[in-house]
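MOLECULE: protein
FOLLOWS: sequence and fold
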Amino acid sequence: MLKRVNINWIFVLAIGTAIIPGYSYAGSALKLPAKKSQFDGLYGIRIDNGAKGEGPCRLVFPQTFGYRNAKQLNFLKRIVNHSVEIEHDVDCVMPVAYDALDHIRLLAIKKQDKAAARMLLYPPGHGGFELGGGELEESYGEWYIIPVIEKYKKLGALLDNKTEKYVVHHTCLAWVDPNADPNLDINNVIKALNKRGLKSLASKIKTTCKEYEVKYSY
């Protein structure tokens, strides 16, 4: 049984070269705004003021934005890639990268979109994101890797050695992160993967998380 330990913690995007049947690749790239306020009303995107009207914050995309549409999905990736370059001229603490990633996760889980799931799970240089360190990278496993490996039904079809290594690394970083959700139980993740027949991934997560418990304990 793995037990959580405490630790101290001291964007080029591509969908990939593979063509996925049934996806739309037509048209030129969507233009990326220079300022956050310019997203409001663009391609059906709106800025959510929050439940209490606390000020403009999150970008909200149409639910089907990017679904089986490579051009729109690439637009979401470019938001993540260029998040630090987009001027925050409206009040919001969180970078727009999180808004785009949240929507990609929705596509992967709710819509079971293969390209979206692949985008979140693949490592840099292999179709995934250059996270660049910091809070986004530290939270990436908990927020974007684990939900997809738990809920994307055809996970096995996306896994190769490089992807498994990347998924395992971020999953175990989330497990030993003292700031992660205290309800996160890596043992349940492992059991669920074994039940689905993904024994290789489950075994690697179990072994690596044990190593990380020692490596990052104090």
About this structure: DSSP finds seven helices and two strands in the chain.
